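Two folds, back to back.
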Amino acid sequence: MIDVSIVIVNYNVKNLADNCISSIYKSNKNNLNLEIFFVDNNSVDGSANFIEKKYPEVKVISLSENLGFSKANNIALKQVSGKYVLILNPDTILEENTFEKLINFCEKNPKTGAISSKLILANGKLDSACKRSFPTPSVAIPRILGLSKIFPKSKLFGKYNLTYLDENKTAKVDAICGAFMFIPKKVLDETGLFDEDYFMYGEDLDLCYRINKKGYEIFYYPEVTTIHLKGESTKKTHLSYVNNFYGAMLIFVKKNFTGVSTLLSYLLRFAIFWRSLLSYFKRIFIFFINPITDALFI
């Protein structure tokens, strides 16, 4: 019997994916039965061929186009056979005994629906996305207005990423992020897989919402630490991030929050426009300031 099925969706990060898979095997000190699915979203860096040759036991699925996070994950999730499933980004590195700790936690807490480890960025700081609240009006509005950054320790304004919680203590949370989601397979069987209306961002939030509705609990579990090396494609100054992130929040609100969705819809549309506009101005500023600086100081 397979103990844990790991699903990794990759897009042009061959070297990071190599390190990720290597860390999975190094983490498995107790020789649990693992299966790894590597879904490649039509990368141009040779990721699929490289992983297939270096790790012949990994089940590589090569797609002919970039289907996005949800659809690519679902292709593999429909094939998994493990008692537990780990949805994992290719830019992560696991520590030793990750699986044993997570399985023990689930066995001691039978209502567990999903777990995130503590995700640490390359700069040593916490990846705030690993513990979140659902974007109700009281959560989303402070984030849109930037109040969550100004007052991160406030229980009133810091709800979205729960920045007022102690990052070294286990906590029950609304949602975790798709970079690391450890889920009992029986829970996925009940809730269904990722909603494919989401291309990138929001699908993890949506799945957590359905897990909660089924009566399960979601945990942030810092007894397990994972390095999360976010790359250029995920930097929040990129316009694609702004549009994808707030667009995904809009889909989530329309789907799950009847009654308040009209107000939030307008707020989120405004946020998309405003954040995009700021990003455009920032890019234009950088484009012009670099030549001027060179001319002055060279």
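---
second:
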Amino acid sequence: MTGVTQPLPGVAWYDLNNPASPALDELAKQYQLHELQIEDCRHIQRAKTEDYDHYIFTVLKALQPGKTPKFLDFDIFLGKDFLITVHAGSCPAIDKAVQRAQQQKIQRLDKLFYILVDHTVDEYLLVLDALAEQISDVESDVLEKPEPPVLRRIFNMKRNLIDFRRNAGGMREVVNQLMRREQGFLGDDLDPFFRDVYDHIVRTVDLIETYRDLLSSSTDIYLSAVANRTNQIVKVLTVWGTVALPLVVITGFFGMNLPLPWQHDPLGAVYATALMVAIGGLILWYFRKQGWF
């Protein structure tokens, strides 16, 4: 069948890396898959799992490799005698699941389904580890050089975490439903494994919330640092403005067209300059004594 691969020879696992492929329609006819779920495979959906008489349909949110976390739909049909995976482009979970299945010689379809879910969730923690390093760098930059580009990085990371939280929250509900399934196409011996996956996704959600709090704290630190720097600038300008004010008064006084002290004295300019220097120095000494600069 064109457009379909079997990752494991001899196992009824069919993988399609193009949801628009006609091969998906052929598999739908062969295994009596509902047309609405075929349509779901070709449009972006929320993470979910649905039960039917002879199969279950699950939409997972797989992370796309790259610098910025992006999520792609990873659709799985699991029946008693077939496993169909549908995704757009490459999917790291497929390659890892194939490698693990070959090492452990796994051919059970429900266990392959578990492995796909497990590797999809494990990718979350790897990306979060990278995000933790970026957040640590941002915290250092906020303290050392609080500039607008740093604030822009913080907002971009918060936006990514919001999207991450939305998709991880949906995945938590999916894994919870799979874990609580009492009968059907998943063996009871897989319950401990799905509980382990659920623990991982709960930890992921908790880490996301923690990182969002750290970024919010970094935003507060940035705003405080900017406000403190502004206050320092205003303080310096105020000090020099205060020093200059009496000098302006003195020069204005001696600039009047009236009889004034030292008007005809050859050293009048020297006296006026000395007076201004003395007053300026006195003001600076007083400010220094008060600890204002």
